[in-house]
Amino acid sequence: MVKKMKLGLAMLGILTAAIVMINKTNAQVNTDVYLNILGGNVTIWATGSFNFGTFPVSSSDITTGKQFTGEDYFRVDDMKGADSGWYTTISVTDLTGTAGTISGANVSMKVDSTGTQLITGTANTNVVVSDTLLSYTPINSTITFIKRDAGSNLGKLGRYAAFPWLQITIPAYQSVGAYHGVLTYTIIEN
């Protein structure tokens, strides 16, 4: 009889453990997680220099040009994504040498299309090159280049690039020497 009682107590212990396991509950607590990303700036970058090359003196005007390629491009880094928009401008000074000057009016720029190339970030069809540059346009006075007009931007951020063509007309009988001018690329936020 003692054996039966021990067995009965052992079974009662197993039954009690099973009841405790059945009554065990799981608890769940949710915690909100927040993150705030602040808008950055709109910045620009351009290649350090552009060289048309070397040409012999001529008795007639020489018009020559080439395209910015590879890492030689103009870009806008829009890390702000604001609806207010922005635009860039471009202009060039006269090219001066030790024995003469070539007017900045002889330097022109054009693009193949008004679209920009996405380097990184989110594509944004609102970032375009001004359609005034679809044909060679003198840049001796400031002209609009890459832009994003004011309007809904949906917070799109990215690095957008343009690979324009630069052309120069070297006047006939231009004085021999090396010539240098400055191309100025500027960003203006609306």
Protein described:
The structure is a single chain. This protein is mostly beta strands. It has a single domain (42-189), classed as Immunoglobulin-like, CATH 2.60.40. The chain contains 1 helix and 14 strands, in the order αββββββββββββββ. The chain has one helix at residues 2-23; strands at residues 42-45, 62-67, 74-78, 86-92, 95-96, 101-102, 107-110, 117-121, 127-129, 137-138, 143-148, 158-162, 165-170, 183-189. The strands form 4 sheets. A 4-stranded antiparallel beta sheet has the order 1-3-12-8, with no helix packed on it. Strands 2-13-7-10 form a 4-stranded antiparallel beta sheet, with no helix packed on it. A 4-stranded antiparallel beta sheet has the order 9-11-4-14, with no helix packed on it. The radius of gyration is 34 Å and the shape is elongated. The chain starts with a helix and ends with a strand.
Task: Fill in the keyword field for this structure.
single chain; 190 residues; mainly beta; Immunoglobulin-like; four-stranded antiparallel β-sheet; 14 strands; elongated
The gist of it:
This protein has one helix at residues 2-23, and strands spanning 42-45, 62-67, 74-78, 86-92, 95-96, 101-102, 107-110, 117-121, 127-129, 137-138, 143-148, 158-162, 165-170, 183-189. With 190 residues, it is mostly beta strands. The protein has one domain: Immunoglobulin-like.
Proportion in helices: 10-25%
Low-confidence stretches: none
CATH architecture: Sandwich
Number of strands: 14
Q: What is the CATH class name?
A: Mainly Beta
Calculate the terminal CA-CA distance, rounded to whole Å.
97 Å
Output the helix-strand order: HEEEEEEEEEEEEEE
- Tell me, briefly, the overall form: elongated
Strand arrangement across the biggest beta sheet: 1-3-12-8
Tally of separate helices: 1
The count of domains is 1
- Spatial extent as radius of gyration: 34 Å
Structural class: mainly beta
Biggest sheet character: 4 strands, antiparallel
Oligomer: single chain
Q: Beta-strand percentage? A: 25-35%
